[in-house]
Design a protein that fits this description.
Elements: H1 2-47, E1 51-53, E2 56-60, E3 67-76, E4 84-96, E5 99-106, E6 111-116, E7 122-139, E8 142-157, E9 165-166, E10 169-176, E11 189-201, E12 213-224, H2 232-241, E13 245-255, E14 258-268, E15 274-283, H3 285-294, H4 300-317, E16 327-335, E17 338-341, E18 344-348
Antiparallel strand pairs: 1-3, 2-3, 3-4, 4-5, 4-6, 5-7, 6-7, 7-8, 8-9, 8-10, 10-11, 11-12, 12-13, 13-14, 14-15, 15-16, 16-17, 17-18
Length: 353
């Protein structure tokens, strides 16, 4: 009996050791494939003119994950005057051995970002996040979903002048649309996007009637049209000229006295300003009108006329005449570089690029 138990334990121990050895071989093979795949991808991008440089690539994480770590990574768009550049002291990728089609990226240190808008000078920004993480979902080697989450920190430099933009939380989600079925569709969905910005603080905002603190901006939308052949901003222009639009499924803004919900369609005009028509639900319109007048964005006469018009709409809709409670459903129009909610001119619109 004792001999039989010893034999069983020996067999069991041997199976465990064999399984560990097999897993070690599997992990090493997967790590090698991922490292080789990264090198091949980088070389392919370089062949297309993109700059990809780094000091070292190391794969760690055994046994629970495969974790490539790249130090001093530098990326730039093709061309002698690249439209964008990005650099990070360290980029860490995490892949679970049982699902290599899901990659989680972490950039724990400040990142330097360069942007060249409309062929102008390179604008340098620095993102110093409290926490920055992104995830990629792959299908047959193609990225089908991107999720970005930045929590805390600040963005400085460039057009932010002498003030940094304080970040509460920034979340962005992109998902592939009907690309494979694009041929034959009148308005194929290129990708779906949702964004949520919370607690953004920027002293430059104080020049507006809405104050320096943006409490919330949230949006879900679908970008429709056809993939352009040109890259970068030239591609955006091609998409616009081919009739590309953005379907805003839901949007919400809580910024000072502006409390708004909206849905509708947006595009770009010839000057690359937002243009479109939406249906908006406006809350507390009296406070908004007062703030716009105090900021000099409405004259006394314009504020009075807007207040009278909205109060009439409010009474018809059953809202109290002072506009402190309830909500008004109004047309929201963006055209000729201006934004209107009902009869109320909210803001002037600048070109996006």
């Amino acid at each position: 009996m004792k001999h039989s138990l010893t034999l069983r334990y020996g067999v069991l121990s041997g199976l465990v050791l064999l399984a560990m050895l097999a897993y070690s071989v599997y992990w090493s093979t997967l790590a090698g494939r991922i490292e080789a795949g990264l090198a091949a991808w980088a070389q392919a991008q370089r062949s297309d003119g993109m700059l990809i440089e780094y000091d070292a690539l190391e794969v760690t994480g055994f046994p629970l994950r495969v974790q490539p770590q790249i130090s001093n990574l530098r990326l730039a768009a093709p061309g002698p005057n690249p439209a964008w550049q990005w650099r990070s002291d360290q980029l860490i990728a995490n892949v679970t051995p049982y699902n290599s089609n899901h990659i989680v990226l972490t950039a724990p240190y400040p990142q330097d970002i360069g942007l060249r808008i409309n062929g102008g000078a390179l604008e340098q920004y620095r993102l110093a996040p409290g926490k920055a993480q992104a995830s990629l979902a792959l299908k047959q080697g193609r990225i089908t979903r991107i999720d970005l989450d930045i929590e805390g920190g600040a963005l400085s430099g460039g057009r932010l002048l002498s003030h940094a933009l304080g970040l509460g939380r920034v979340q962005l989600h992109l998902r592939e649309g009907q690309i494979s079925e694009a041929k034959g569709l009148q308005n194929p969905t290129l990708f779906e996007i949702s964004a949520k910005l919370e607690k953004l603080e920027y002293p430059g905002f104080a020049n507006s009637a809405l104050g320096a603190n943006l409490s919330l901006f949230a949006m879900t939308a679908a970008v429709e049209g056809f993939w352009p052949e040109a890259p970068g901003l030239a591609g955006v222009t091609q998409w616009r000229d081919a009739g590309g639009v953005v379907q805003i499924k839901a949007a919400q803004i809580d910024w000072g006295s502006l409390k708004l919900e909206a849905a509708g369609t947006l595009a770009l005009d010839a000057q690359n300003r937002a243009i479109g028509s939406l249906t908006a639900k406006l809350m507390q319109h009296a406070q908004l009108i007062k703030g716009l007048q105090e900021a000099g964005q409405l004259t006394r006469e314009e504020a009075s006329a807007a207040g009278t018009g909205l109060n009439i709409i409010a009474m018809v809709a059953g809202e109290t005449a002072d506009g402190k409670t309830g909500a008004l459903t109004l047309p929201m129009v963006l055209q000729n570089g201006e934004m209107f909610i009902g009869p109320l001119r909210i803001a002037k619109l600048k070109p996006l690029y």
